[in-house]
Amino acid sequence: MSKQAPVIVITGTPGTGKTTHAQLLVEESPVPLKHINVGDLVKEKELYEAYDEDWQSYTVDEDKLLDELEPTASEGGIVLDWHTSDIFPERWVDLVVVLRCDHTRLWERLEKRGYPLKKIQENNEAEIMEVVLDEARSSYASEIVVELKSESTEDLESNVARIVQWIETWRKDHGTTEQ
């Protein structure tokens, strides 16, 4: 059975706008898409091994997470929103969108969230060093990895419009244009 809609991963350093992009994409998509905030899913379904007080985050149990997502991913029609992408099997993923943001703007966004200084510094350094982008490029075919700037409302709208166009092309290529 072929997928009726693609699996899209929206990834980036915390604070780059993944969830906002995913929510708008679900609203604008020409095919039904379900937004899965992976961090929230991990908490809701207890798909973690422990909570790290220093980093104020969970240590994810990757096997449990992948088992949880497998049935949904094989059907397609999902947007996976998470700060990492290399955990998802290549066979699941049709498009990886890596959101990028100027580190000064990113710092301000993370401060507004009340992140501890150590976490802001670590995430800022990851953004400057292109950690998430490198991870995506080393895990997936280059033609499915797209790097998009995410610094303004204009960027958000333009990015979502580009992804919607990509979905239209994907549908034609996969013969799923009938409603």
Tag the structure with descriptive keywords.
179 residues; alpha/beta; Rossmann fold; five-stranded parallel beta sheet; two-stranded antiparallel ribbon; 7 strands; globular; nucleotide-binding; Adenyl_kinase_AK6
Describe this structure in words.
It catalyses: AMP + ATP = 2 ADP; ATP + H2O = ADP + phosphate + H(+). Belongs to the adenylate kinase family. AK6 subfamily. InterPro entries: Adenyl_kinase_AK6, P-loop_NTPase. With 179 residues, the chain is of the alpha/beta class. 47% of the residues lie in helices and 20% in strands. The chain contains seven helices and seven strands, in the order βαβαββαββαααβα. The chain has a five-stranded parallel beta sheet with strand order 2-5-1-6-7, with helices on both faces. A two-stranded antiparallel sheet has the order 3-4. The radius of gyration is 16 Å and the shape is globular. It starts with 6 loop residues before the first strand and ends in a 6-residue tail after the last helix.
Give the overall shape, derived from the CA principal axes: globular
Helix content: 40-55%
Order of strands in the sheet with the most strands?
A: 2-5-1-6-7
The number of distinct helices, counting runs of at least 4 residues, comes to: 7
Beta content:
15-25%
CATH superfamily: P-loop containing nucleotide triphosphate hydrolases
Major sheet: 5 strands, parallel
**Tally of DSSP β-strands:** 7
Stated plainly, the CATH topology is called: Rossmann fold
